[in-house]
Amino acid sequence: MNFLVYATPPRRLTNIFRERGHHGIHTLDLPKGNSTPNLELLDYADRENHVITTKDSDFSTSFWLNNRPEKLLLISTGNISNDELESLLISNFVQIVEYLTDNRFVELTREHVVVHA
């Protein structure tokens, strides 16, 4: 599975994906970096089959209103240290990938992994 990490989650999250046999890229690695417009990110993610991984609710709004992106992992943990976020992602990684295999929108909270239909 391919993951595109958008802006605020740290770039080092891509290592978690890669270490588990998946592809991970951060918006900082794109030509326009974190300044890449959302529409370009949506086009890129859909064209390259990437799950947009973000803390930004704009993408969940786009999902519900515009049916884009094709796949979304929303991180809604509130204020959390990068170390805590990494630990949370690692401990829920298998479930997240399993849910994203059959679903389009998955949300990671501090307590749960939620599938949105």
What does this 3D model show about the protein?
The chain is of the alpha/beta class and 117 residues long. Helix content is 41%, strand content 21%. The chain is built from four helices and six strands. The chain has helices at residues 13-19, 38-47, 57-66, 82-102, and strands spanning 2-5, 23-26, 50-54, 72-75, 105-108, 113-116. Strands 2-1-3-4-5-6 form a six-stranded mixed beta sheet, with helices on both faces. The longest helix has 21 residues, at 82-102.
Q: Calculate the mean pLDDT score and round it.
A: 95
Which term fits the overall shape?
globular
Radius of gyration: 13 Å
Using the coordinates above, name the CATH class. Answer: Alpha Beta
Low-pLDDT regions: none
Total beta strands: 6
Approximate strand percentage: 15-25%
In short:
The chain is of the alpha/beta class and 117 residues long.
Characteristics:
117 residues, alpha/beta, globular
Q: What does the secondary structure layout of this molecule look like, with pairings?
A:
Blueprint: E1 2-5, H1 13-19, E2 23-26, H2 38-47, E3 50-54, H3 57-66, E4 72-75, H4 82-102, E5 105-108, E6 113-116
Parallel strand pairs: 1-2, 1-3, 3-4, 4-5
Antiparallel strand pairs: 5-6
